[in-house]
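Notes to self after the Tuesday call (sharing in case useful).
The group wants a holo model before anyone commits to mutagenesis around the pocket. I volunteered. Ligand is zinc ion. Logging inputs and output together so the record is complete.
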Amino acid sequence: MATDKRKLTKRQKEIILYVVLAIIVIAFAIWYYYKYYYVVESINTPIILEVEDNTSGDSETVDVDGILQVHMIDCGQADSFLFEQNGEYGLIDCGTRSTGKDVVKYLQDEGVKELQFVVGTHPHDDHMGGMYDVLNTFACNIVYMPDIEDGLVTTNWYMQLMQKISKDKIKLVNPKVDDEFHLGEAIFKVVGQLTPEEAGSNINNYSTVIKVSFGTMDLLMTGDAETRVETKMLETNEDELQCEILKLGHHGSNTSTSDSFLKAVDPDYGLISCEVGNKYQHPSTETVKKLKKFKIKIYRTDETGSVVLTISNDDVTFDKKAGDYKDGITVANSVIKTGGLSWN
Ligand SMILES: [Zn+2]
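Result:
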């Protein structure tokens, strides 16, 4: 009996050992499962959200309430566009070093206190010269500007601007095609951005091209992108280019707005920011003829000053009358005749 008892005890010990081993194995399996599960969950969740975001921005339109206001600010032979949605503001381009102050005043008059973003489409004075004054006046969350090869732009104002962005610790992002950012319910998507290798030495071709979508309405902001950028966009993402409103590239110069690009965008309205009597004679005869041929209504700062667009889910209204299909020389001459300008 004593032997049986010992044998039984041994078996019991074995059983206990097996049970303990089984518990350890199960516990390890549970620990491993949960560890693995939570790691996967934490990695995948933001990625899934990002994919969903891009999908909605790419091909679907989401109905929106409210309005998106776009101000084409009269800042001479330069660009500056203010966007407002649901009390938030963003700016694409900032006028020149000398008209940056006018842009600042315009924003102050509109009640702007801070900017969600400022985009500098490319580092020419007529787009980014006024950015220093803008960043000096308004809090700004993020600045977008293209990646420029070292040594290509060495102007003093550009160096000072870059120093300011660095010193003030403003987040700086070089846009890439398909990048998206938002202003309220408006979606800003980068649809054109050449690399430094592709752009070469022509600074205009560094221009970041942004499609602004609000409900069913789209506006294409082109900076001074010339035909090389347009051709690249036609090759890579032609399907995305259709927009109701086109901000004409390079102030209506004939270096932009190729026939094939205009057909792909197929806009109802065109925006031209230029100065009366500008030495480049923008907009060009060729460009205004194309706009007339395609019956695209044009709004231009040289004829009416600043223009405000009010965009709703499926419509746009303008606070000024549409302009004439006159080239830069004709507009300047008509103003000279009325004594408003001395041509130089
Ligand atoms: Zn320009």
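Two things stood out.
The pocket of zinc ion is lined by residues 79, 124, 126-127, 224, 250-251 (CB under 6 Å).
Residues 33-58 have pLDDT under 50 and may be disordered.
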